[in-house]
Amino acid sequence: MRQIPGYSLCLGHVGDARDVRSVLSAGVLAIIDLAGNEPPVDYPRDIPYCRFPLVDGAGNPPWLVRSAIGCLVEWVTAGIPTLVFCSAGLSRSPAVAAIAVSRVSGMNPTDALKIVAGTSGHDVSPGLWRDLTRMKVSA
After folding, report:
1. Per the confidence metrics, is the pTM higher than 0.90?
2. Residue 132 and residue 6: Cα distance in Å, rounded?
3. At 5, which helix (H) or strand (E)?
4. Would you give the DSSP letter of residue 42?
5. What are phi and psi for residue 135, nearest 5 degrees?
6. What is the pLDDT of residues 107-128, one digit of tens each?
7. Do 52 and 68 meet the contact criterion of CB atoms below 8 Å apart?
8. How far is residue 73's CA from residue 79's CA, in Å, rounded to a whole number?
9. For the chain, N or C: smaller number of CB within 10 Å?
10. Could you give the 3-state DSSP secondary structure of residue 128?
11. CB 95 within 8 A of CB 127
12. Residue 137 confidence (pLDDT)
């Protein structure tokens, strides 16, 4: 799990998310699960846990993608310490986080992806990225 500089936002993979004690010890107060191919993680009932089961590629239902982005934008704007995770933490979570950061900051999505990815590895699916960058999300 790694913190995105300048934002109350952490990215991770399913293994990070399953270590509930470490996540909560890090100060995370809300969870966004994008790992459609993994079973949900069981968090305490006072922790908001939103599951948006996305596939790692093109063709996700637009309403589901808009919901994931909208939820994350809301929480980032409010400064809620949030963990966003997917299976490997390399495609869906950095892509959706980058779109949310771009909406909050006003920067273009590619620059936001550079900030979100930082010096860590990422492997964003081209089809997913194309769909996300073309998505219209109401503010």
Report:
1. yes
2. 22
3. none
4. -
5. -70, 130
6. 999 999 999 988 677 889 999 9
7. yes
8. 10
9. C
10. helix
11. no
12. 55
**Torsion of the alpha carbons at 98, 103, 105 and 110, rounded to the nearest 10:** 40
CB 103 within 8 Å of CB 137: yes
Structure tokens at 121: 């590895």
User: Which residues have C-beta within 8 Å of that of residue 114, sequence separation ≥ 6?
Assistant: none
**Cα–Cα distance measured from residue 105 to residue 122, given in angstroms and rounded to the nearest whole number:** 21
Paired strand residues for 67: none
Q: CA nearest 137: which of 104, 91, 90?
A: 104
List strand residue ranges (DSSP E) for 4-138, in order: 9-13, 30-35, 49-54, 82-86
Pairing of strands 9-13, 2-3: antiparallel
Among the listed residues 81, 61, 83, 72, the one whose alpha carbon sits nearest the alpha carbon of residue 12:
83
